[in-house]
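Narrative progress, year one. The postdoctoral researcher (J.K.) led the effort to move from monomer predictions toward full complexes, under supervision of the PI. The following entry was the first complex the group processed end to end, covering 678 residues in total.
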Amino acid sequence: MSKANKTPTINDVARLAGVSKKTVSRVINRSALLSDDTRTKVEAVIAELGYVPNPQARALALRRNFLLGLLHDNPNAQTVLKVQEGVLDAIRDTEFALVVRPVDRHSPTLLDDIRRFLEQQRLYGVLILPPISENDALAELCLEMGCGYVRMGSAMLDDEEHIVASNDREMVSQAVDYLIGLGHRRIALIEGPEGFRSALERREGFLAAMQAHGLPVPPAARAQGTYRFDSGLEAASRLLDAAERPTAIFASNDEMAAGAFHAARQRDLKIPEDLSIIGFDDSPIAAHIWPPLTTVGWPVREMGRAAALKLIAPGDTTARAFRFPARLVQRQSVGPPRG
Amino acid sequence: MSKANKTPTINDVARLAGVSKKTVSRVINRSALLSDDTRTKVEAVIAELGYVPNPQARALALRRNFLLGLLHDNPNAQTVLKVQEGVLDAIRDTEFALVVRPVDRHSPTLLDDIRRFLEQQRLYGVLILPPISENDALAELCLEMGCGYVRMGSAMLDDEEHIVASNDREMVSQAVDYLIGLGHRRIALIEGPEGFRSALERREGFLAAMQAHGLPVPPAARAQGTYRFDSGLEAASRLLDAAERPTAIFASNDEMAAGAFHAARQRDLKIPEDLSIIGFDDSPIAAHIWPPLTTVGWPVREMGRAAALKLIAPGDTTARAFRFPARLVQRQSVGPPRG
DNA sequence: AAAGCTTTTGACACCGGTTTCCTTTTTCGC
DNA sequence: GCGAAAAAGGAAACCGGTGTCAAAAGCTTT
């Protein structure tokens, strides 16, 4: 009576069930060494009281908590959210929760900020999204702090424990093969910014496919962007004003592809009749521009799920895949070249 | 020597400083009753050891933790992420962290799932994003569980403690005034789905502005969508095929506006010459379609920050504002009507 | 019935903080 | 110089769980 209305603790359960705390603890943790009798009895009391173990107390006693962190630099809102959903898929029905932490890639105190964050929150592990997942110092920091980590991205490192990656290079090659198969010969590339592993992989995939078919890639058929809309517009403008106008463009992400759409429109080029465009990411924008953009999509949500599983169930071999296949999403921005 | 490499605890600090735990605790919590002498001494040891208090132990002792939750139903990735950033602005340099929890609005077990989530994580408080922020049962659940909460959205309730809202109605009115000022008379509305407060507010804002100018809104000038791209396309198709074709359309969000673009294009209507379109949200897509979409943007990040402050510093009156102004973002999808 | 196992259970210390309450020291007025 | 009040600091209990280890109970075996 007197202690009404407080959330019940393990002690309350123990008292009501007439057993010790430890026994209740055993029931909670599904310990094998328990008679069915006591188990049933304790479970009844737990149900009656609506008892839920206090996660902070557990975290303290076990000397580890059940918080996963997500470090990201907002490259693409949709991607970040899909990863969050994937992580949630993985931790559903567990006691884990997901803590997010946006960071500023360009901050000079980036590493210190993250260190303070890890010290303060004592996370079980963190997921690191591209592009900051490419920062090796960050991975070392996690190691040093004894914090589990998984890096996501289009990385080339073969570190099965700490990497969940897509296979950008191969996918871009396939996309370019597809263009070539349709008859395109003059295919231009809008590549991503220097220093991004994804930009590198996509470029290499592009060049490899062209070379495999013996097609030249003159400097005028390559332009660099920043992964942003404006830069795609600019890059495409340069490409389309070249002497030998390309009949197709591969853009290293959808935003830049959208910029290229704009550049084509300014020049009265019809898509896909005068110009085919392929993007990368399958972001929402791809479906919402006109004509809908053919692009390469990677299974972000599944990757988020796999990354989380790698942290919380490292023994689970079903989650050991670490290189995920992407697929070409065919919409309406690609056709055979004119004539 | 022997206990090397473990993260230092309050006991280690106490021993090295030659004081009791309690004194160290006093230093951490900036208690007033302490001599400067001891304070300096203890602080030196803390710095030397790189001691950081264990948040789980603190949470246990204080009977409350420092976790804020974000409940959302992914209406719009960009919005969710901006809110996350706003919350991070608010909790920077505090010990709070942000836990995210996507939910499925249509799940029959929605409330139970959230209840379990709150029971398990024992959050300090939660932020609820639209559209699930409109669910009153959810707010009651939080109250019942003793969990602080703030609802965000375009709500009409005047509950300064628990609401952070934008002023959709007034903003839509202004947008429509703007169209009328340019000379438009036949203005159509694509409204959001039944049951969304935001859809309601935006519709009311639209109708109020039309009525204020004595302009009729025949049934053929109204169509309902689901807030999704496809529905905008369909709705606009109906509107544009009506006997009296409108010269301007207000769409209740940007995605549907993008769908309307598509419908206009199918009918060879030029934007803005033949048809002006205004959207709502200022989502990334608005800047990435062609022509760039004039739209109404609301200060999502600031609202996220305000919502978080309401939870963690309820006394702070600078954050008491609860109705945020939106603003018209003028791009290129609006012009005077032809002729 | 006693001895010897195995299974089940509980007492107690501990995780790393905070709170309560009490003792010691300092300050200060007279 | 003394007593009293105020300031400073410490001992022990507590928050709600888990780990260790030993005791109790149940079951064979002889």
